[in-house]
UniProtKB/TrEMBL annotation:
UniProt family annotation: Belongs to the band 7/mec-2 family. HflK subfamily.
Organism: Thalassotalea profundi
Keyword Protease: yes
Record gene name: hflK
SUBUNIT field: HflC and HflK may interact to form a multimeric complex.
Protein known as: Protein HflK
Ranges where the record places region Disordered: 1-27, 348-381
Keyword tags: Hydrolase, Membrane, Protease, Transmembrane, Transmembrane helix
InterPro entries documented for this protein: Band_7, Band_7/SPFH_dom_sf, HflK, Membrane_HflK_N, Stomatin_HflK_fam
Gene3D superfamilies: Band 7 domain
General function of this protein: HflC and HflK could encode or regulate a protease.
GO terms, molecular function: peptidase activity
Membrane topology summary: Single-pass membrane protein
Main location group: membrane
Length: 381
């Protein structure tokens, strides 16, 4: 049986019109009243039988409180990037450091300051500066640095980057002021760079900026534009001087070994000549000592043998012409000049090997044979 049929009025689902004839939907005020009583019971209150305005106010306050709690909870979530670290300030006072990742904080109580720890930052410095020798030069330098201590970076000074910039300018001017212009422009650039690096670290050390210097780059150094051409000529002359010195050193390194080699070769040749002369002399002495007994035993035979051996040696190196004159007394004309031209060594051999002729027309003994015989005679005596 349906609830709205006659005789079944007690089963009305709206339960708000038990004695009347109206079977429509419940009144909105009554519905709000019931909801207010239910929420009041949830939060520890008692159901009220008052008016509908009071019930609606307590429901609105409850909803606002729930929404406010949810918003506050979700507003506390934040993220620290992988390359960063976060400084936590609780009521303005340092409370610690948080690592990268998803974090939660007390909104309106904690404040998070993210600090990049991995990025390498650049800081330039440039300007006209006075050198030790009272010359003006424009120098450009750039440093690279990273943050290593986020707390010192944020709280040690008002602005760590600005303090580092002023320290770099001070260190650069100090080093340039104690250097000569030629060193800054040419050969001393690396020395200046290292000196600026060391001086900068010494300056920022007492301030504890929480920074580390990664590198110092010496970008450029040049004189003022008004005197740039003159300085270019001076630098070119210095480069030529260095080049000539290098060429001279290379030439000296090339000449010295050759000279030492020649000296060594001459020494070796002198030693060889000395040994050869000594050995030749010893050989002559040994040969003389062996032939002396033979000469003492048969002087005439030995002298003749020596003479024949000498003549054989002499005539073996000369050109010879044989003429048979036994056939008659006629004068025979021979083209001796043509014959001698066919012997290329004749001019060099004849003066040394041609035997001398005595007044009788007979050839005499060779000088070497006579000298040897004389030596044998002296030895015999």
């Amino acid at each position: 049986m349906a609830w709205n049929e006659p005789g079944n009025k007690d089963k009305d689902p709206w339960n708000n019109n038990k004695g009347g004839k109206n079977q429509g939907p419940p009144d909105l005020d009554d519905l709000l009243k019931d909801l207010g009583n239910k929420f009041g019971g949830i939060f520890g209150g008692k159901p009220s039988g008052g008016g509908s305005g009071k019930s609606f106010s307590s429901l609105g306050i409850s909803l606002v409180l729930i929404i406010a709690v949810l918003v506050y909870a979700f507003s506390g979530f934040y993220t620290i990037k992988e390359a960063e670290k976060g400084l936590v300030l609780r009521f303005g006072q340092y409370a610690g450091v948080v690592e990268p990742g998803l974090r939660w904080k007390w909104t309106f109580i904690d404040r998070i300051i993210p600090v990049d720890m991995q990025t390498t930052r650049d800081l330039p410095s440039a300007g006209f500066m006075l050198t030790q020798d009272e010359n003006v030069v424009r120098v450009e330098m750039q440093i690279q640095y990273r943050v290593v201590d986020p707390r010192a970076y944020i709280f040690s000074v008002t602005n760590a980057d600005d303090s580092l910039s002023q320290s770099l300018d001070s260190a650069l001017r100090y080093v340039i002021g104690h250097s000569k212009m030629d060193d800054v422009l040419t050969s001393g650039r690396e020395i200046v760079r290292q000196a600026v690096w060391t001086e900068l670290e010494n300056i920022i050390k007492p301030y504890n900026l929480g920074l580390i210097i990664v590198d110092v780059n010496f970008k450029d150094a040049r004189p003022p534009e008004e005197v740039k051409d003159s300085f270019d000529d001076a630098i070119a002359a210095q480069e030529d001087e260095i080049r000539y010195l290098r060429e001279a050193e290379a030439y000296a390194r090339g000449i010295e070994p050759r000279a030492r080699g020649r000296v060594k070769r001459i020494e070796q040749e002198a030693i060889a000549y000395k040994e050869q002369t000594v050995l030749d002399a010893e050989g002559e002495v040994a040969r003389f000592e062996k032939m002396l007994p033979e000469y003492q035993a048969a002087p005439e035979v030995t002298r003749k043998r020596l003479y024949l051996a000498t003549m054989e040696k002499v005539y073996s190196n000369t050109s010879k012409v044989m003429v048979d004159v036994d056939g008659g007394n006629n004068m025979i004309y021979l083209p001796l000049d043509k014959i001698m031209q066919q012997q290329p060594n004749y001019q060099n051999v004849i003066p040394q090997t041609s035997p001398s002729t005595s007044n009788t027309g007979q050839p005499t003994r060779a000088a070497s044979s006579s000298s040897r015989a004389d030596r044998f005679d002296n030895g015999r005596d």
